[in-house]
Specification:
heterodimer; A: mainly alpha; 0% strand; B: AhpD-like; 70% helix
Chain lengths: 122, 197
C-alpha cells in the first residue's frame, strides 16, 4: 500500500503549479497553492467568510472571537469557544474551514514578515 | 477532537485504512485524518507542501528542519506537534534536539536559524534586519534562511489547526510510532485516500 503511494507520488500528484523548478521557486509556488486551495477552494463556508477569518475578522461575534484566539494563541481555544460556533449553526466542515483559514492567516503573516527582511532571491 | 466527524474517513477505503493503521499499532494521526477527510481543501496541498519543505532537497538536514518545526511548535505551545516533530528531530540528530539547542550543544548555524524562527513565531513584528545579520554572521545563507522561514510558515499554520481543533495522540505509543512512520515515509498518504471520487 505504501509502495503504491510512493509510485503515485513519483508520478507527480504533488502540485507543480507555477512551474518553478528551483527549490525556492517550488516552495513559493506550493505555498501559494496551499493558500489558494484554502481561501478559494470548494467548501461549506463562503470565500468571503474564509478571507475574513484569514484576516482575523467576522461579522459574527462568536466567529470573530474564535478566529482571533486561533490567530493569536490557539492553545487557549476551549471547548466552549467551539460550542458557541455550533450554537451559531456551524457544522464540523465550517468549523474546520474557518480554523484552517485563521491559522493560515497567522502563518502567512510570519512568512511575509520573514521574507520581507531578505532581499530579492539571487 | 472538536470536530468529531473527522475521526473517521467518509469512504469505505478510508475507514479500512484507519482500521489497518490502528491494527499495525500506528494509527493515522488527527492531521492525517483531517487530510483524508478534506483532500482538495486541505489534504493534498498541505501534505504536498509539508513533504517538499521537510523532505525535499535543502540546505538543512531532515533533522534540522524537524528541529525548527519543534522549535516553532514549542513557541506556540502545541504539544501534539512538539511530540511528533521533536521525536523525529531527536532520532535524526541523536538525543533530544530541543534540549541540545537549549544547552548550546547544537551547531551555531542551526542554532541561529532556530532562534530566528522562534522570534518570527513569537513576535513577527519585532524582527528586524539585525536578526537577519545575526543569522548571516553565524553562517546561515539567505537561501537557507528562506527555507527555515517556510518551515515556520507551515508550523505556525498547522500548530493553530491542531490546537484549535483539539487534535491529540491516542497514546504515547501512537505518538512514537506515528513519528517513526513520518520519519521513514515522509508526509505523503497513499493516493487512493486523497483522490476525488
Amino acid at each position: 500500500m505504501v509502495d503504491a503511494a510512493e509510485r503515485r507520488d513519483d508520478s507527480g500528484w504533488v502540485s507543480r503549479r507555477g512551474g518553478a523548478t528551483d527549490r525556492l521557486g517550488r516552495l513559493r509556488d506550493e505555498a501559494a497553492h496551499l493558500v489558494e486551495a484554502i481561501l478559494e477552494g470548494e467548501g461549506a463556508t463562503s470565500v468571503q467568510a474564509r478571507r475574513a477569518a484569514f484576516a482575523g475578522r467576522s461579522d459574527d461575534p462568536a466567529v470573530a472571537h474564535y478566529v482571533d484566539v486561533v490567530r493569536r494563541h490557539a492553545y487557549r481555544v476551549t471547548d466552549e469557544d467551539v460550542e458557541r460556533l455550533r450554537a451559531e449553526g456551524l457544522d464540523d466542515d465550517a468549523i474546520f474551514e474557518l480554523t484552517v483559514a485563521a491559522a493560515l492567516g497567522a502563518g502567512t503573516e510570519r512568512l511575509d514578515a520573514g521574507l520581507s527582511l531578505l532581499g530579492p532571491e539571487e | 477532537m472538536r470536530v468529531p466527524s473527522y475521526e473517521q474517513g467518509t469512504r469505505r477505503s478510508q475507514r479500512a485504512f484507519v482500521r489497518l493503521t490502528r491494527a499495525l499499532g500506528a494509527e493515522l494521526d488527527d492531521v492525517g485524518k483531517a487530510a483524508m477527510r478534506r483532500p482538495e481543501f486541505f489534504g493534498k496541498p498541505l501534505l504536498g507542501f509539508a513533504h517538499l519543505v521537510l523532505r525535499g532537497p535543502s540546505a538543512w538536514s531532515v533533522g534540522e528542519r524537524e528541529l525548527f518545526a519543534a522549535v516553532v511548535s514549542r513557541a506556540n505551545a502545541c504539544q501534539f506537534c512538539v511530540g511528533s516533530h521533536g521525536e523525529i528531530a531527536a532520532k535524526e540528530l541523536g538525543g533530544d534536539g530541543l534540549a541540545r539547542l537549549d544547552e548550546g550543544r547544537l551547531g551555531p548555524r542551526a542554532a541561529a536559524a532556530a532562534t530566528f524562527v522562534e522570534v518570527l513565531t513569537r513576535e513577527p513584528s519585532s524582527l528586524s534586519a539585525s536578526d537577519v545579520e545575526r543569522a548571516r554572521a553565524a553562517g546561515v545563507g539567505d537561501e537557507a534562511l528562506r527555507e527555515a522561514i517556510y518551515v515556520a510558515f507551515l508550523f505556525n499554520t498547522i500548530n493553530r489547526v491542531v490546537s484549535g481543533l483539539g487534535f491529540e495522540h491516542r497514546s504515547d505509543r501512537d505518538r512514537r510510532r506515528g513519528a517513526g512512520m513520518l520519519r521513514r515515509r515522509g508526509y505523503r498518504l497513499p493516493g487512493f485516500l486523497l483522490d476525488r471520487r
